[in-house]
């Protein structure tokens, strides 16, 4: 036995065994409960999961027929979140236990909560434990109970009092900065979250910071409000029992795009219900049109929303982003999810296509178009794949990481691909990255402008073909290898141009990547201001001026003109836990076609006028 083994053996004793309080465990291992921390730049960051966990409880009350309004407020200055529903209210004698004792709650009683989002009573406890301030108030039958916590520790428990307030529950919280760091909420992400609740719960009104969110037509409204491209036929919308779906095909899109939900939970990673629908739509189309079309021809360009409600769903993690088990009983008849969904889709979609012949013709045209494009591209794809296979043996463009998004690793949400320009920038990031979760893809220089090109362009262009292969998105996003795709370019004119060219590539061929919140821009410091005692990294001229004032006379000021000028030792600070990412956000108002046409099309005089009118001049430092 080596000396090291002997030391490790002697150190393992009774003192090594620790028993943590419920809140200590959550604070020590937050990833088990909310997926990841983050600073708010990503829609799956922990601060949004906290909001979701609280709203989920209010949604469950609505689903049981109690309370048609939920009021949500977020103060962006103090980061305080409040959620108030008009449900039954937590039983007053159990208020403290329900938010501070694991394995305590009413979700275990299926007679009290049917088809609820939360099944294990963990969500609100996680919010409590991960908040620097947490307040819960319940109102039942003219009586109220209030309790206040800090980091999950009870600070103030009020006596039960009389009140004139309406029945329901109010929760206020501020995510703990010692856990989440210097975070900030992004309004677009919160609005998207709340809109999803509205689409999935017809009859429910959600008031968010004074704005009303309400949907009359469920998933039909979801698609109508999110599709920003020309479609092949009117949206097909069908609802039966505990399954609802709506879909159409985009004329120009490639791949598939899904908005999938289970019991109101956005299953962003899909799961068995989504796979069952994908199989069902292929089967129905083959039988209806009496031709054995390729599944990819039927699904290419598909934009779809599905919602399933079942008793006691089994998700693959506490964050509930993927439905796991097939062995469910969604209608109490002992059917699996696959059989249940296949039956509903087959019966209803077949009837719909027989009745709506114009829509059926539009769907058939799209399938035939996809089939033609696939056959036209077959030889190009074969050559491109062979070329990529040869190149990949000696490919130095991709420095891969060990953990990927399409695995079940607990750090999968951290998986990141940096797309960089040139060898110097790639070298700095490669040397300073976390090899477990961070990969680097190096561009030779400026990529080609792909605006207006067809999908075969991706295969004809070696660099884009290798990037597509690295991301593993050739067919769909099901096996996407990186959760965060980060464009890392210099903060100069050439760097900005490369950003635009890369965003054109993603918006032209993979807009679902952008819509799903996977694309980011890396912020790196423009200046380093330091003296012998302190160093400040500044991301703006205002921060530079503040640093100079803080350090006093004659500090050393360095202007970083490119990423390659930042040493690997310094770069480690900018892509680690304090990484600053700007998300690329997209909504219907953005208009992909209009944006790309204006910035990357042939409207040179209009673009020139815009640039001149918006040009900023800054004095040399």
DSSP, total strands: 23
Continuous helix count: 22
Rg, rounded, reads 27 Å
User: Helix proportion of residues, in percent?
Assistant: 25-40%
Quickly give the structural class. Answer: alpha+beta
Question: How would you describe this structure to a colleague?
Answer:
The chain is an alpha+beta fold and 621 residues long. The strands form four sheets. Strands 1, 2, 3, 4, 5, 6, 7, 8 and 9 form a nine-stranded mixed β-sheet that branches. Helix 4 (46-63) runs antiparallel to helix 6, helix 10 (272-289) packs parallel to helix 12 and helix 14 (422-432) packs across helix 20. It is globular. The model is unreliable at 107-114 and 617-621 (pLDDT under 50).
List the helices and strands and how they pair.
Layout: H1 3-11, H2 22-28, H3 31-34, H4 46-63, E1 69-75, E2 80-85, H5 95-100, H6 123-129, E3 131-140, E4 143-150, E5 153-157, E6 161-162, E7 168-175, H7 177-180, H8 187-200, E8 205-208, E9 211-213, H9 219-226, E10 236-240, E11 243-249, E12 257-262, E13 265-266, H10 272-289, H11 295-299, E14 302-308, H12 337-355, H13 357-393, E15 398-399, E16 416-421, H14 422-432, E17 438-443, H15 456-460, H16 462-471, E18 484-488, H17 493-509, H18 511-515, E19 519-523, E20 527-530, E21 535-538, H19 541-551, E22 556-559, H20 568-574, E23 580-583, H21 592-600, H22 604-614
Parallel strand pairs: 1-8, 12-14, 16-17, 16-18, 18-19
Antiparallel strand pairs: 1-2, 2-7, 3-4, 3-7, 4-5, 4-6, 8-9, 10-11, 11-14, 12-13, 15-17, 19-23, 20-21, 20-22
Helix pairs in contact: 2-6, 4-6, 8-9, 10-12, 13-16, 14-20, 17-21
């Amino acid at each position: 036995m080596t000396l090291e083994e002997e030391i490790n053996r002697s150190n393992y004793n009774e003192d090594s065994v620790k028993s943590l309080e419920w809140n200590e465990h959550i604070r020590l291992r937050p990833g088990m409960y909310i997926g990841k921390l983050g600073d708010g730049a990503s829609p799956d960051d922990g601060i949004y999961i906290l909001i979701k966990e609280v709203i989920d409880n209010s949604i469950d009350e609505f689903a049981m027929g109690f309370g048609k309004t939920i009021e949500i407020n977020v103060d962006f200055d103090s980061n305080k979140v409040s959620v108030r529903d008009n449900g039954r209210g937590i039983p007053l004698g159990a208020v403290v236990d329900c938010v501070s004792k694991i394995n305590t709650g009413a979700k275990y009683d299926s007679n009290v909560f049917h088809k609820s989002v939360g099944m294990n009573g963990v969500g609100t406890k996680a919010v409590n434990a991960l908040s620097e301030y947490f307040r819960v108030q319940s109102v039942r039958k003219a009586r109220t109970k209030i309790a206040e916590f800090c980091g999950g520790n009870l600070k103030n428990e009020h006596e039960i009092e009389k009140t004139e307030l309406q029945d329901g529950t109010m929760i206020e919280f501020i995510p703990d900065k010692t856990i989440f760091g210097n975070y900030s909420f992004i309004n677009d992400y919160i609005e998207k979250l709340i809109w999803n609740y509205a689409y999935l719960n017809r009859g429910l009104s959600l008031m968010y910071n004074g704005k009303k969110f309400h949907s009359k037509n469920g998933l039909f409204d979801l698609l109508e409000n999110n599709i920003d491209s020309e479609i092949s036929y009117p949206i097909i919308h069908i609802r039966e029992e505990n399954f609802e779906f709506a879909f159409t095909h985009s004329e120009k899109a490639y791949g598939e795009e899904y908005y999938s939900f289970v019991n109101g939970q956005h299953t962003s990673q899909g799961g068995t219900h989504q796979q069952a629908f994908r199989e069902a739509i292929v089967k129905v189309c083959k039988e209806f049109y009496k031709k054995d079309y390729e599944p990819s021809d039927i699904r290419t360009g598909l934009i779809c929303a599905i919602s399933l409600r079942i008793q006691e769903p089994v998700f693959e993690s506490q964050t509930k982003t993927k439905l796991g088990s097939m062995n469910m009983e969604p209608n109490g008849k002992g059917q699996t999810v696959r059989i249940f969904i296949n039956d509903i889709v087959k019966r209803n979609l077949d009837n719909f296509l027989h009745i709506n012949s114009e829509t059926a013709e539009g769907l058939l045209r799209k399938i035939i178009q996809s089939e033609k494009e696939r056959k036209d591209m077959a030889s190009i794809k074969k050559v491109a794949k062979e070329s990529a296979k040869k190149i990949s043996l000696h490919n130095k463009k991709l420095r891969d990481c060990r953990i990927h998004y399409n695995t079940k690793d607990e750090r999968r949400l951290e998986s990141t691909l940096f797309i960089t320009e040139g060898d110097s920038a790639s070298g700095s990031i490669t040397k300073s990255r976390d090899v477990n979760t961070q990969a680097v893809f190096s561009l030779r220089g400026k990529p080609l402008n792909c605006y207006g090109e067809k999908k075969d362009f991706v295969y004809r262009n070696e660099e884009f073909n290798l990037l597509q292969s690295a991301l593993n998105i050739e067919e769909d996003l099901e096996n996407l290898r990186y959760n965060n795709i980060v464009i890392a370019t210099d903060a100069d004119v050439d760097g900005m141009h490369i950003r635009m060219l890369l965003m054109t590539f993603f918006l032209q061929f993979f807009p679902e990547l952008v819509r799903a919140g996977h694309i980011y821009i890396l912020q790196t410091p423009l200046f380093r201001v330091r003296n012998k005692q302190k160093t400040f990294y500044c991301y703006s001229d205002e921060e530079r001026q503040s640093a100079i004032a803080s350090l006093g006379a004659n500090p050393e000021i360095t202007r970083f003109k490119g990423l390659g000028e930042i040493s690997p030792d310094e770069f480690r600070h900018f892509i680690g836990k304090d990484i600053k990412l700007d998300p690329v956000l997209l909504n219907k108002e953005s208009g992909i076609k209009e944006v790309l046409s204006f910035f990357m099309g042939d409207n040179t005089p209009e673009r020139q006028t815009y640039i001149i009118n918006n040009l900023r001049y800054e004095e040399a430092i």
